[in-house]
Amino acid sequence: MEVSNEKQAIAIADLGVDQLTHFQRQLDQEIAFLTESLKVATLIFYFQMYIPAKVVDPKNHLIEIGTGYFVEMDTEKAVDFFRRKQGFLKKQMEVIEGVLPEKYRARNAIVDNLQKKINVYCSQVQ
Question: What is the pTM of this model?
Fold first, then answer.
């Protein structure tokens, strides 16, 4: 059995109210997650903390490369590490910022179609 990872376009007008509501909730969750991810990435990216300290060896630095993982690096390697990390974070933020407008457009299309279906239903009931 072969599984396809291709995205399929679905005509929103063909969906029922339950399906539209389900997709709206799903998009709301995705938008909230991406928005929160962007806030966290921005916080990590711009967070600075200064503490008094004595530098024992000014040519070597203890750098946190992951949660609780530290590596001793010379100044040149440390600067290179942080430049690469900064570039990575910028790319991730750009990806999230690029996806959010698409999610909002899809959500708005679903909400508009859902509202039309509800209006048609209400006019038929009266």
Answer: 0.59
